[in-house]
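Q: I'm writing up a methods section and want to include an example of the input and output format. Could you take the sequence below and give the corresponding predicted structure tokens, formatted cleanly so I can copy it straight into the document?
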Amino acid sequence: MEMDSIPNGNATTPNPSSVPNPNAPIPSSKLSQLTESLKLEHQFLRVPFEHYKKTIRANHRVVEKEISGVISGVGEAADRDELSRDEAVNHLSSLVSRLQGLKRKLEEGSRVEHLQAQRCRARLDHLESADAANLSDWNNIRLKRILVDYMLRMSYYDTAAKLAESSNIQDLVDIDVFQEAKKVIDALQNKEVAPALAWCADNKSKLKKSKSKFEFQLRLQEFIELVRAENNIRAITYARKYLAPWGSTYLKELQRVFVTLAYKSTTECATYKVLFEPKQWDYLVDQFKQEFCKLYGMTLEPLLNIYLQAGLSALKTPYCYEDDCSKEDPLSQENFRKLALPLPYSKQHHSKLVCYITKELMDTENPPQVLPNGYVYSSKALEEMAKKNNGKITCPRTGFVCNYKDLVKAYIS
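A: Here is the clean output for your methods example:
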């Protein structure tokens, strides 16, 4: 952030050397940061585009079904030789009513398609607006997007919606997509598979292409519930209709599940007892979330976890897990330690950082601090500069001016 220079002593005009040049070239560090940021926005564009395509396919299926029904009805009426006038009028009236219903569905479908196309356009415009000059504001919006993504994945739907609305980023987040998933998740948590099976039917081609076994697992669970209710005859009928087609692909799993017909849900046999445990429903919820993320091109982990782990991997050292670890180190916090547990330690080069201003070594006693333009100087040098200039910091290499409170402390690992 560029600031006007503060008069020095009794001077009545600002020092020209301290005034930032608006036409000065943007630091390469900022341009590099912007480029790297944009590389990570694949999900940001992929999700609304996949949702848009899904809506178009659904509307197309509705049109095909209704038009086919109307044509079939007309053909049926034409083939009937003995059709009274009243019957013909009633038949044609029903076809007209059906076409009017189709018109209403098409209007609603067109409205939804328009909104989703507008969302795709808004996201493209948002990415195009990213500029090194406004990188701070753009990153602020990005942080809010990441927080909304995390809340939606953790099922905090109302909180996510409020944050999106207060920040005016409704078109930049995927609340409606996650609301679709919420219906299936709630049903599975209530031990109902019908909504999940309907979702599988809507996305059958994509699930088949990815070789998903989610629908198979749902069918197995329905079979298990029939066995639990000791309704064996119905369970056998169900297996013949819905499980037999999977026999060539998942024969071993089917053989294992079919043996449950000889047991009750109270069995103590560990091999079959686990099939009746309530955690099988939790497993289905987790599997649905994975399939849902794959379908829309989302990361399986929340974006917040991924970005935090990227930062923690650069800070993680054996010292971070010692009892005397500095409280300023993020890895001194237990939650961050758990998040960083599977990460490797950062590579150490044992390099020394020397301040450009004072030529003194920067270490834990004199830690480095980062200016908004990306340049780094020692705390000692910047504190002295702030005292002499009423809290203002001027980068000696670029002339960039900022407040001391805008500095960010860096950690030496």
